[in-house]
Amino acid sequence: MAEAKEDTSTTTRNALSARELEWAKNSPELLAKHKEVNGDIVRTRFPPEPNGYLHIGHAKSMNMNFCLAFEKLNVPMEHRRTIFRYDDTNPDAESKEYIDSLKRDVAWLGWTPECTTYSSDNFGKLHGFAVQLIKKGLAYCCDMTKLEMEVQRELAMKRVSAKSSGKDPDAEHPIPSPDVLPGRNRDTSVERNLEIFDKMKRGIYDEGTWTLRLKMDFESANPNMYDLVAYRIKFTSHPHAGNGWCIYPAYDFTHGICDSLEEIDYSICTLEFEPRREPYYWILWALDMFRPNVYEMSRLNCQYTVLSKRRLLKLVENNYVRGWDDPRMPTISGLRRRGYTKEIVNKFCNDLGATRASNVIEYEKLATTARACLSETSQRAMVALDPIEITISNWKEHEGTTLSFQVQNSPTDASLGEHSITLTSTLYIDSSDFRLEDSQEYYGLAPNKAVGIKYHGGNIVCDKVIQENGNGKVKKLICRLDTAEDRPKPKTWISWVPSDGIRCEVRVYNHLFTVAEPTDLWEEELNPESEIVYPNAIIDASVSELVDSAKLDKWQSNAALQFERMGYFVVDLDTTWSHEKKEGKLVFNRTVSLREEVAIKKLSKKEEEANAARKAKQAADKAAKEARMKIEPKDLFRLSEDYEGKYSKFAEDTGLPTHDAEGNALTKSALKKLKKEQKKHEQTLAKFKAAAAK
Q1: What is the pLDDT of residues 207-223, one digit of tens each?
Q2: Ramachandran angles phi, psi of 165, nearest 5°
Q3: 288-328, pLDDT tens digit by residue?
Q4: Do residues 589 and 562 touch, judged by C-beta distance below 8 A?
C-alpha cells in the first residue's frame, strides 16, 4: 500500500491545524452530509477511558474541549457542542467505580456536555465495520502470538530503516519466511476470515489464540501502520455493556469511528498520539466515513507528581497514599479533597492554554492560583497545630476589662461577616511561636520576653517554662498579661486559641516526591514527609457550625478556612464533628501555605547534613543518568556502572551477557530479564535523544 503523503493543498487552515494527510481529505459528498447534520455547530469530544480517576491532565483536556478550542476557533457560544464519551473498550481495566467518578468530576468542574455516550454502545456497529473491512480484503484474522508480532514488527522497522538510508533491505535484513513478514495469515481468503471472525465472536476460540488485524502497510515509516490489531478475544464481562461480547475492539480501531459516528469536527488529543494520525485516517478512509480534524496538544506535565495511570494505580495499590482521593494525588478527587475548588482548577488550566510545545509546569503556579482564589472567600481562624498551654498568672487584674472581640471573617471583605473571640485565663499558642533560647532574628515568644497578643492588643511576658520529664518538651508556660500604656512595643503579634477551642487533627501536605521530575526510580523518590499529621491541634470554636460534618460532600468542595499565619485548609471527609452535640472528630487538610508568611526554619546540624546528603545523591543520580544516556543499548552491560564486574562474557551480536563474573552460563530466565532491561534502556535512550533534538 502506498505511503500516506502529507497534504499541503488543503484549505482548512486555522488555529487547530496540524499535519495533514491525503487519507484525511473528505469527499464533497461526505462534507455535505456532515454539514447537513451539524449546520453551524462545531463539535468536540472529551473521551476518557474509565480505567482510573481523572487527574489534572484531564482537567486541561476538558478545558480545551469544552472551552478553549472554541475560543481559538472564534466559535459563538450558541454553536459550541462537546460530547462526553466513555472510551470503554478494555473491560479488564474498567469498572463501575471509575465510570461514576468520571461523571461526577466532569459535573463538579462545571462542564455540561451535549450528551454522554459510550464507545461500547457502538459495539454492534463496530463489529459491522470490521466485517466490512474483511469483505474488502482490508482485515484478516491472525493467530500469531504476541512475541511473533513483536519479531515481525522489529523486522519491518529494520527493513524500512535500511531502505530510508539507501541500503538494500533484502541484503541488510532479509525476510526468513513469508510466515514472519507479512505473516502466515495475511493472504487468507475473505470467506475463511469471515468464518474465523464469526467463531471468535461466538466464543469458540480461547483468549490469545486469534485477533483481527488491519491489512495496512509494512513498508510505512510509521510502525503504527504495521497491521494493527482491531479485535481481540476477552472472556470478561463489560461494566457497561454486560456479558454480550467476548471480542472487544482496540482503541485505535474504535475512537476514530466513534468520532465520525458522532459527527465530531475536532478530535483533540495529546502529542504522544500524533503518530497514530495515520491509522486514524486510514481506518476512516477504508470505511469511507467522515474524517474529523485531528489536533494534538502538549500534555500537562506538572512538577513533583506523576500523571501516568499505571503509576497512580500503583500508588494506591501499594498503599503509598490513602486512595484515589488522597490529597497528595493529582486526581480531581484528590485535588478537591485537598481544598482546590473548581474555580482554581479551571483558572489554572485556562491560564496554561494549549500549545504543541512540551514543557513541565511548576507546581507553584497551581499553588499561586489557589492562594489568589481562596484569599477572597476563606474565613479566617486562629489555630495551634502543636499547642503549648499558657496560663495567665495575673488574670484577676484584667477580669473587668474587655476580653471579647468581634473579628471580621475576612480582613478585606466585610460582607463575609464576623465572629467573636474571647481571651481566656488559659489559652494555647503554636509551638513554632516559642523558643527556649531567644535570638536577635527571632521575634516570637521566649523566656523573659514580651510579644503582642493578636486582636487583644496587649503583651504577654513569659515568666516560667514547665517541661515534660525525660524529653524536655515544653508542656506549659506561665505568662503575665501586660496592658500598661508604657509597655514595650512588640516586634510581632502571635495567634492564640482560647480554652474553649475545638481539638482537631490537621494534616499538612507537601510535595509527593522529593524531586521535581520523578524518574524511572520514582518509588524511591517518594517524599516521606509528604503528609505530616498534627493529631492534637486546636482551633478557635467560632468555626464549629461551619465545619459540621452534616455539610460534608465527597463530590463537592467543602468548607475552606485560612488558618492565620499558616495557610489555607479545608475540612476533610474523615470529619464526624457535630456542632449541635459539640462532639466528634474534626480533621483539616492543608491546601496550600501562605507563601509570603512561610517562616525560614533554622536547621539543625543533623538536618543540614541530611539535606547535603540528599542533594549529593540527587546530583549523583543525575550524573549517572546522563552517563547512562551516552551508552548505546548494545554496550549497556559492558560500560554501565550498574553492571560493572557482574559479567565476564557477552554475545557479539546483541551485547547481552552470557556468563556471570565467575564464568557460569546465565539461565534463560536471567537472559530474558537482561533483554528486557536492554529494551527498556533502548526506549529511554530514544526518548532522551528525541527530547534533546527539540
Answers
A1: 999 999 999 999 999 99
A2: -95, 10
A3: 999 999 999 999 999 999 999 999 999 999 999 999 999 99
A4: no
Retrieve residue 275's grid coordinates. 503518530
Summary mean pLDDT of the chain: 92
Catalytic pick from 299, 311, 365, 628?
299
Q: So what's the pLDDT on residue 623?
A: 78
Determine the straight-line distance between the first and last CA of the chain, rounded to whole angstroms. Answer: 31
Instruction: State how beta strands 418-422 and 404-408 pair.
Output: antiparallel
CB neighbour class for 94 (10 Å; exposed up to 12, middle 13-18, buried from 19): buried
What confidence score (pLDDT) does residue 642 get? 82
For residue 227, what pLDDT is reported?
Answer: 98
Query: Distance between CA 268 and CA 109 in Å, rounded?
Result: 19
Listed residue (564, 552, 598, 595) closest to 339, CA to CA: 552
pLDDT tens readout for residues 48-73: 999 999 999 999 999 999 999 999 99
Is 668 an annotated catalytic residue? no
- Is residue 149 classed exposed, middle or buried when 0-12, 13-18 and 19+ CB atoms within 10 A define those classes? middle
For residue 129, give the amino acid letter.
F
Number of H helices, E strands in the chain: 17, 29
For the chain, give the number of residues.
694
The average pLDDT across 472-479 equals 94
Q: Quick one: pLDDT at residue 233?
A: 98
Cα 95 to Cα 99, 101, 118, 239: the distances in Å are 6, 10, 13, 6
User: What contacts 310, CB < 8 A, 6 or more positions away?
Assistant: none
pLDDT exceeds cutoff 50 at 596: no
Local confidence band at 606 (pLDDT 50, 70, 90 cut-offs): low
- 103 band by pLDDT with thresholds 50, 70 and 90: very high
Q: Is residue 335 a contact partner of residue 394, using CB atoms and an 8 Å limit?
A: no
Contact 655, 692 (CB under 8 A): no
DSSP, residue by residue, 509-549: E--SBSSSS--TTGGGGB-TTSEEEEEEEEE-GGGTTTT-G
Q: Which of 293, 278, 290, 294 is nearest to 28 (CA)?
A: 290
Whether 49 is a known active-site residue: answer yes
Catalytic residue among 72, 103, 309, 322: 309
Per the DSSP assignment, residues forming a β-bridge with 419 are 407
In this prediction, residue 599 carries a pLDDT of 39
For the stretch 504-516, pLDDT in tens is 999 999 999 999 9
Question: What are 456's three cell numbers?
Answer: 487583644
Say if CB 530 and CB 510 are below 8 A apart.
Answer: yes
| Neighbour-count burial of 205, counting CB atoms closer than 10 A to its CB (0-12 exposed, 13-18 middle, 19+ buried) | middle
For 275, counting Cβ atoms within 10 Å of its Cβ (0-12 exposed, 13-18 middle, 19+ buried), the class is middle
> At residue 419, does pLDDT exceed 90?
yes
Which pLDDT tens digit goes with each residue over 136-175?
999 999 999 999 999 999 999 999 999 999 999 999 999 9
Which one of 20, 49, 296, 343 is the catalytic residue? 49
- Give the whole-angstrom CA distance, residue 377 versus residue 410: 8
Cell reading at 464: 516560667
Q: Is the pTM of this model over 0.85?
A: no
Rg from Cα positions in the chain: 32
Identity of the amino acid at 541: A
Verify cis geometry, omega within 30 degrees of 0, for the bond prior to 182: yes
How far is C-alpha 437 from the chain's CA centre? Answer: 44
Active site residue 234: no
∠ CA 166-170-175, rounded to 5°: 140
Of 373, 361, 343, the closest CA to residue 63 belongs to 343
Residue 306: CA count within 13 A, CB half-sphere: 22
Q: Give ∠ CA 224-226-231 in degrees, rounded to 5.
A: 85
C-beta atoms surrounding 625 within 10 Å: 14
